[in-house]
Amino acid sequence: MDVNRKTAYLTLVDVESKKAYSNLALNHQVAVNRPNAQGLVRELVYGVLEHKMTLDYYVDQLVKDGIQSLKVPELTILRMGIYQIGYLDSVPEYAAVNESVVLAKRYCRSKAGLINGVLREYLNRKLYLRLPDRSDDEVRYLSLKYSYVPWIVELWLEHYSVDFVEALLAAGNETPPMTVRFNWLKVMKQDLMKKLEESGYEIEEGALCRNALHVRGSQLLDTEFYKLGMFTPQDESSMLVAEKLDPKHGEVIMDVCAAPGGKTTAIAERMNNTGKIIASDIYRRKLDLIDKEAKRLGITNIETRSWDATRVDSSMLQKADRVLVDAPCSGLGVVRRKPEIKYKEYTTDMELLPKKQLAILSASASYVKPGGTLVYSTCTVNPAENERVTEAFLKRNSSFKQIERTLLLPHVNGTDGFFICVMKKDDSLI
After folding, report:
1. Do residues 309 and 412 share a domain?
2. Does any domain span residue 132?
3. What are phi and psi of 420, to 5 degrees?
4. How many domains are there within the chain?
């Protein structure tokens, strides 16, 4: 049995059955099975996840009793097989079929014949299989073509043109580059670039942030450079949040929704390890991640604490020079990294998100000194969680003025989808 396809299969089953996060499930299965072609494993896992609804649409037409008759093991193998045949030119069709049957004999032996038959039927019919007519139902067509649950397509169509939405949907299925933030507490930019290039990596400087590097090459996080804290994986959109906050040496900064700490440590590096950053999160176990990462990076000016960001901490009233609210959100801007987000059903929890975000922003504003800065950010592309939240806040808080508002989009900026709003508190209140 091919260990690479086995690893991809077990990862996909974990995501489907246990609702595991794809990146965590993949890292676990790679560590356990030690595949010899990690690139193929990642391609299979993320390819299947990114195109799941499209693949299921074809499976449903090819299986006599429909997709509802299939259990997770055989459905996962069929998705993998059709993805290899339909999307991967590098995999011979016979290999895709044969390896799928081998997987079936190991994990769902009684369905091996079914899987062989369905994949061969797909080979015969793939040129004739069509998506539903776009003119009949555009939402369903786009939903199936790009594999997003319909409510996301409908949400974006409410606010943007069809061409814009289609480009945004397509961008969510692209593989993002590996981007890192170099740690200038430990290494200079040119020195790190030279070290990585000498180790066989291809490097390109970031377009938005001067401490961003795009790196091509495998097993980057296994290098000594990473272990020694010379860099941190982080998308440029996320780095830009710390840049827009613009922390100064010696200031008091509050990061009220800090875990897992990527922006917190970016702020600390910009402050050259001076001043104090109070990084809070409601879950103590998540704060341990920040402490661990700060230690790797050589950062000592972060103080972590468990706190519910919707509540006001009276001991911190007007004591922070700058406050960051990187609010919990629907995550629609990071589907290219976490494709499972595309399949979340719309729930009352999601409906209540803007109310929670506004509550966190309002509570956090009380910590800002007169003349201080308040930054609100999310990793989503949803006006209800972005512009409407900050507009509602500013309407209720006349002492704050909007300085700048930025919306980053995958198909426009080449980054994750991110919203950043910079607000300033009136210094006449001193």
Report:
1. yes
2. no
3. -135, 125
4. 4
User: How many Å apart are CA 393 and CA 179, to the nearest integer?
Assistant: 33
Q: Which residue has the tokens 């769902």?
A: 108
- For residue 161, pLDDT over 60 is answered with yes
Question: CA-to-CA distance for 204 and 216, rounded, in angstroms?
Answer: 9
Q: How far apart are CA 93 and CA 21, in angstroms?
A: 30
The C-alpha atoms of residue 179 and residue 275 are separated, in whole angstroms, by: 28
Measured from the Cβ of residue 164, the count of other Cβ atoms closer than 10 Å reads 15
Q: Is the pLDDT of residue 428 over 80?
A: no
Q: What Rg value do the Cα atoms of the chain yield, rounded?
A: 24
Q: 50 vs 54, 111, 149, 269, 345, CA distance in Å?
A: 9, 25, 12, 35, 16
3-state helix, strand, coil in the chain (%, to 5): 50, 15, 30
What residues contact 35, with CB distance under 8 A and at least 6 apart?
Answer: 3, 4, 6, 7, 41
Q: How many CB atoms lie within 10 A of CB 323?
A: 28
Lookup: tokens for 318:
């007007």
For the cut 90, the answer to whether the pLDDT of residue 430 exceeds it is: no
pLDDT tens digits along 360-399: 999 999 999 999 999 999 999 999 999 999 999 999 999 9
The label of the residue with tokens 């006449």 reads 428
429: confidence class by pLDDT, cuts 50, 70, 90 = low
- Which of 81-111 are b and which e, b meaning 16 or more Cβ less than 10 Å from the residue's Cβ? bbbbbbbbeebebeebbebbbbbbeebbeeb
Q: Which residues are catalytic?
A: 379
Give, for 209, the enclosing helix (H) or strand (E). none
Residue 427 has what pLDDT?
Answer: 86
299: containing domain: 236-429
CA distances from 352 to 27, 52, 59, 179, 279 (A): 32, 28, 35, 33, 25
Residues 21 and 53 in one domain: yes
Mean pLDDT of 75-92: 95
154 lies in the same domain as 107:
no
Nearest to 385 by CA among 361, 415, 411: 361
Does any domain span residue 130? no
Asked if residue 99 lies in contact with residue 2, where contact means CB atoms within 8 angstroms, the answer is: yes
